[in-house]
Design goal:
With about 70 residues, the chain is mainly alpha-helical. The protein has one domain (about 5-65). Helices cover about 70% and strands about 0% of the residues. It is built from 4 helices and no strands. It has helices at about 5, 10-25, 30-50, 60-65. The two termini are about 25 Å apart.
Length: about 70
């Protein structure tokens, strides 16, 4: 999946936020660092969702996006 497909209309804003976070954390903003940090962030988020005992159905997950 390309970054544009993933981020849609917000792709540029998400990229800026990722670069800012890497800069704040004292990391580089080169392509490889951005890819690595994004993957880590994505996996951490998936882990939080997977570990939430309140989410037992897809409908509950969807509810989180509308809050």
């Amino acid at each position: 999946m390309t970054w544009r497909v993933f981020g849609g209309e917000m792709a540029d804003i998400l990229l800026i936020a990722l670069k800012q976070r890497c800069y704040k954390d004292g990391l580089g903003t080169d392509k490889e660092t951005l890819i690595t940090q994004f993957k880590l962030h994505l996996h951490r988020g998936i882990g939080y969702l997977a570990g939430d005992i309140n989410i037992k159905k897809v409908e509950k997950l969807i509810e989180l996006t509308t809050k």
